[in-house]
Amino acid sequence: MDKLVVEKEAKKYKRFFEKYTVMPFAYTERTNTWMLVEYKKPTNKEQASGFSIFPEKQMTLEEKEEIMSHFASVFGGLLRIRKNILHRIRVTEEITRTLERMNQLLSNWADDEEKGKLVYDFKQFSNFVLWCQKEKNDKFQLTQQIEQKLFKTYSFTAEDRKCLTEVIPHFDVIVYLQMKRQEEQLESNCNLLEVFRKDKGNLSKEDASYAEKILDTYCNEEAERTLSQVLEKEFLPSWRELPGSIDSYKELLESSKEQYSNREKADLAFNLSVLRN
Asked: What pTM does this model have?
């Protein structure tokens, strides 16, 4: 269906002072294509005030619900990635470079058994964080492949939706595991920093200053406060009982999928309540 035709048809459902947008991707199924129009009031640019589906056909409530569920899922998923995931992906390379350098510097520093034990513990921690970073980036690349396809065709299918919604619940799990592991490591990192400050070994002044600065960011009061706030705000209380380890992944993923499904159902219920045709 032509976008210009939809824009003209959408006007009849527009209310005073509202602006409307024909959403960029159409939903296609076999030979059928639908487009979604979103209406918003200038006083509330975050939430839609209404929707309409085109072309207008005689549809049952179940058919409207199915079509709207595809739109809500795809657009909601892409928005969630941009709002909650993208800023965490942007720091992946920086975190990876930092931890790889720290592993090397601390290996050079550890010249006795006490230091060796502290560095071994730090490496266990840093390698887990590096694993989380890789997993996060790999999952993000999958969503980018889907998004690139959407922008190439300006349409999506039920299969595209399925692929997107299968990936997204992993992000919360990976972010939780990384932050939980950082919280668990606070005391150990503080012990390492205390020993390091007393004896910087044979490291150069520049390397020693860098290592001390990084260790401090992983155990200071601000880091502890931030981790606690994020873990309490963004994740279920039941998650806090599970350790930051790969063994927790499966259980957390099932919970994350359930959460995401409930969120999608709530979004769909709202969207249907303001559907205008």
From this structure: 0.90
- What's the DSSP call for residue 145? H
Residues 57 and 158 in one domain: no
Q: Are strands 26-29 and 155-156 parallel, antiparallel or unpaired?
A: parallel
Same-domain status, 46 and 114: no
Is residue 68 in some structural domain?
no
- Identify whether 124 is part of a domain: yes
Which structure tokens are listed for 268?
A: 């769909």
Residue pLDDT, tens place only, 215-248: 999 999 999 999 999 999 999 999 999 999 999 9
Q: Which residues pair with 27 in a beta bridge?
A: 34, 156
Q: What is the pLDDT of residues 91-124, one digit of tens each?
A: 999 999 999 999 999 999 998 999 999 999 999 9
Residue 28's SS3 state is: strand
Contact 67, 27 (CB under 8 A): yes
Q: How far is CA 202 from the centre of its chain?
A: 41
Cβ–Cβ under 8 Å, residues 268 and 68: yes
